[in-house]
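Side project, low priority. Logging it here so it doesn't get lost.
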Amino acid sequence: MDFIGAYSPENLTFLLSGFMVTLKVAAIAIVLSFLLGTIIAIIRYAKVPVLSQIVAVAVNIIRNLPLLLIIFFMRFALPEVGINLDIMTAAIAGLTIFEAALISELIRSGLNSIDKGQIEAARSSGLNYIQTLWHIVLPQAVQRMVPPTVSQFIALLKDTSLAVVISLPELMHHARIINGGHQDYVIPIFIMVAFMYFTVNYLLSIFAKRFEAKHA
């Protein structure tokens, strides 16, 4: 094992550039999956005729598929029907679709956890359904679903490593390139990769715990 050589400025810079891609892809996918997941959850919570049933079927299908299959589909299957996505877009699309299905269930559970009496009281006070959902249900649901949602975002960040199979230039991709030329760098490089993932995920977990304690 050659820690000195593995941790040369060039290698660390190369790893960091890959990690920036990882964080960028994760950040975009987190925002998009949360927005899409929220829309899906509200549609199902509101029991929109026909649409809620269609969305429920789609969510159940996606939740039971491997994320790797979805990423492959975005990158290699869509071009067969004329939809060509670059590597980063394909990775973001795959992560967004998969995570949105999971997050929608978390949000829907948060919405369903709100006492129906509060909803009835809000409606009797003159608020319409949309106002009740926006001012009464969602604020309380958000507080309850933040910890599990952050946990899902942590999983999403780790799942970005699967995009290495479509050659996304993220952290694991760069680690493999370095290791490919120097076998004695393998353990030091993977230790550094683990440290990078751990640092960000640990900070996210601390945020979730503090948020939960603050609003308990």
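Brief comment: The chain is about 80% helix and 0% strand.
Revisit when time allows.
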